[in-house]
UniProtKB/TrEMBL annotation:
Keywords: Oxidoreductase
Gene source species: Streptomyces zhihengii
Region annotation Disordered: where it falls in the sequence: 468-488
Gene3D superfamilies, sorted: BFD-like [2Fe-2S]-binding domain (1.10.10.1100), FAD/NAD(P)-binding domain (3.50.50.60)
Any one Pfam family match given in the protein's UniProt record, by short name: Pyr_redox_2
Protein name, per record: FAD-dependent oxidoreductase
Basic and acidic residues bias (residue ranges): 468-481
Length: 488
């Protein structure tokens, strides 16, 4: 049996797409490696530890979307399953085979006529001395621990980075009783002209902006130091973090003056997000470089079609732009899939979906402009001894030595083949930006000219024996049924 649409990712984009497509009569399967729908922003505790879901201000639609998705019996839902790659079936033109894996259950194949990549994003890692010490965590990761596991750090916390999520995380941690010592932003205070340009984004986002203002006021009232033009230059400690070194950045993004030390048990880093594009790369979709939108993003047309036939993209893999934008794109992608498969979609429904995408994109553009990370400045934080690829223990000095020995290396893939950076279990998700920065600095070329790491099936670690399931005679998945673990 072949599904009409397979959706990978049950965040705002995937949920909205699945519902829009099912409303038009498509048989839809949704796969997500988490235990529940919601994606990163609306991450919930596992069903066994359910608590009331309270989305943050500005996302009033979230509870309704999740409720509709959870209760929709037309959709086939596969939670706890990772999509590890997709293949074309030569004997069945127009049908894609999505390989999905659940540890312990092995690999299965889902056949579908359209595939939507709605795989979201992950924290943008930045390498500097000590960034791999226990006690150093990413902002999204820290937030997930609090949201999904109700685990808060013990001991004082410093937050540093370049993304507004830092404020949300600082607020959440303080509500959990954690002492926040400082929140340090790499950017300066926006200039008046930048603020005037940003005014266009205010309508429709008043509650969200008011919440952000309230958080800043609350942090200041609680005595939390808020610094700008400040970066972490080192995380120090014997076997775990005990001290963070922070330095000022001058207007050209170079550290200036001596670094000051702040005692802390945890350092939370939030430099932004990287679009999760490994599935798209494995399929051969074209990517394009868009630094402010997260780096490498999946290229697409106005109907969200990628360069690979029958493959659509929605949400953060198309460029990090927030949950409103992801939801709007998801709805549009669901309608596009329906129309392509011959299900009638009235023109006004398309027009409304496109308007919603444009509206959300306007706000996202302002946020991207104000909070884009300065990749060149961040790339300079790694010293020769700093690990860039933590899976394969490759340091900056190792990369520089490879580049010096092979003057013709001009892309990250060639560098990967020479020194193994990016070949470990994470398949380069956490070192690609660092490798690209070192390459760009060494060659004096723009970071986007180094290309992106190639991705191959399986994009997640899978026991070798499980790959036998990709045999064409292996059993397939069937529409119907709902494998979401039962809630309380
Ligand atoms: C850790 C983290 C926390 C965040 N918290 C916030 C926040 O508090 N506020 C905010 O405004 N923004 C937050 N963001 C930004 C957030 O990503 C977007 O605003 C929004 O969630 C994007 O929606 P999406 O549907 O594109 O992707 P997501 O919500 O990220 O959903 C993508 C889904 O795809 C699944 N997935 C990915 N790859 C695979 C695969 N191979 N197989 C199966 N499933 C897969 C993931 O498990 C995930 O559930 C966060 C981002 C991250 C990474």
């Amino acid at each position: 049996m072949t599904f009409d649409l397979a959706v990978v990712g049950a965040g705002p984009a995937g949920m909205a797409a699945a519902l829009a497509a099912a409303d038009r009569g498509l048989r839809v399967v949704v796969v997500d490696e988490q235990q529940r729908a919601g994606g990163q922003i609306f991450r919930r505790p596992p069903p066994s530890r359910d608590t009331a879901f309270r989305p943050s201000a500005g996302y009033a639609w979230a509870a309704g979307l999740i409720r509709r998705f959870d209760s929709d019996t037309r959709l086939t839902k596969r939670f706890g399953w990772s999509a590890v790659g997709a293949l074309y079936d030569d004997d069945r033109p127009g049908v894609l085979e999505l390989a999905v894996d659940r540890p312990g259950d092995g690999l299965r194949v889902i056949a579908a006529r359209r595939l939507l990549i709605a795989t979201g994003a992950y924290d943008l890692p930045v390498a500097f001395p000590g960034w791999t010490l226990p006690g150093v965590v990413m902002a999204g990761g820290a937030q997930t621990l609090v949201k999904a596991q109700h685990i808060a750090p013990v001991g004082d916390v410093v937050l540093a980075g370049a993304h507004p999520l830092l404020l949300l995380v600082a607020d959440k941690l303080m509500r959990e009783g954690v002492t926040v010592r400082e929140v340090a932003f790499a950017q300066g205070v926006p200039k008046p002209a930048e603020l005037v340009r940003a005014l266009g984004a205010v309508p429709g986002h008043v509650r969200m902006l008011a919440e952000a203002g309230g958080i800043v006021a609350g942090l200041v009232r609680s005595g939390v130091r808020l610094s700008t033009r400040t970066v972490v230059t080192a995380a120090e400690g014997a076997d775990r973090l005990s001290r963070v070194r922070l330095a000022r950045l001058d207007r050209s993004g170079r550290t200036t003056g001596p670094a000051r030390a702040v005692e802390a048990a945890h350092l939370v880093l939030g430099y932004g997000f990287s679009p999760s594009t490994d599935l798209a790369r494995q399929l051969g979709c074209d990517l394009r470089w868009a630094s402010a939108r997260g780096g490498w993003v999946v290229a697409h047309d106005e109907r969200l079609r990628t360069s690979v036939p029958h493959v659509l993209v929605a949400g953060e893999p198309s460029g990090v732009a927030g949950a409103d934008h992801a939801r709007a794109q998801g709805t549009l992608a669901g309608l596009v899939a329906a129309a392509e498969l011959g299900h009638p979609v009235p023109a006004p429904a398309f027009a409304a979906a496109r308007r919603a995408v444009r509206r959300a994109a306007r706000f996202a553009t302002v946020v991207q402009r104000l909070f884009a990370p300065d990749r060149e400045a961040l790339g300079r934080l790694a010293t020769p001894d700093t690990l860039i690829c933590r899976c394969e223990a490759v340091t900056r000095a190792d990369l520089d030595a490879c580049l010096a020995a092979s003057p013709f290396i001009s892309g990250v893939n060639a560098l990967k083949l020479s020194c193994r950076a990016g070949m470990g279990p994470c398949q380069g998700r956490y070192c690609e930006s660092g490798v690209a920065s070192v390459l760009a600095a060494a060659r004096g070329r723009h970071i986007g000219l180094g290309g992106s790491f190639a991705a191959h099936l399986p994009i997640r670690p899978v026991p070798l024996g499980d790959l036998r399931a990709l045999d064409p005679d292996a059993s397939g998945d069937r529409p119907g049924g709902d494998e979401t673990p039962p809630g309380p």
